[in-house]
Write a structure and sequence with these properties.
This protein is α/β, with parallel strands linked by helices. It contains 6 helices and 6 strands. The two termini are about 15 Å apart. The mean pLDDT is about 95.
Length: about 170
């Protein structure tokens, strides 16, 4: 098994949707920040997926497009800009992951029932083992998160740490 960690759409603009979304994103931000060092310690890919939508002003260079300063993006991290819900649709993400030998994708990010779910299913359609990080999903409507978790494979941060321990660095 060679996993990658995909962080989907954790962009500044989405923190401003409403108070519920902001709280949800901040909680997930802490979980993402706990998982990233586990992947980096094993030299496994961390992928930052960012949504682009010119109509909403969500374009590279705009403050809303950027990732919050709470995240430390390393030079070796992959960056993917998408225009559709599924991070694999219309991007080179599949090719990049395959070139690294990735066969398993762990997902976290925003919005659980939209882009994260679409990307998770898209990865499965392409033959990847596709797993959601428990506690790693944010939403404008947090009551939708349990459904998304119920219909997908899940892994906790603790279990993920144990799995990654078994992978040589």
């Amino acid at each position: 098994m060679k996993p990658a960690f995909l962080v989907v759409d954790m962009q500044n603009l989405f923190y401003g949707h409403n108070e519920v979304a902001r709280r949800s994103l901040e909680e997930v931000q802490a979980m993402i920040n706990a998982v990233i060092p586990l992947f980096r310690a094993k030299k496994l890919p961390v992928v930052w997926v960012q949504h682009c939508d010119a109509e909403d002003g969500l374009v590279p260079g705009a403050k809303g497009f950027d990732l919050p300063e709470a995240f430390v993006v390393a030079p070796e991290d992959l960056r993917v800009v998408k225009e559709k819900g599924n991070a694999f649709c219309g991007t080179d993400l599949d090719e990049r992951l395959r070139s690294l030998g990735v066969d398993t994708v762990i997902f976290a990010g925003f919005c659980a029932e939209f882009c994260v779910l679409s990307s998770c299913r898209g990865a499965r359609d392409l033959g990847y083992s596709s797993i959601l990080l428990r506690g790693g999903l944010a939403s404008i409507c947090p009551e939708n998160i349990p459904f998304v978790e119920r219909v997908n494979e899940l892994i906790s941060c603790g279990a993920l740490g144990k799995v990654l321990d078994g992978i040589p660095a």
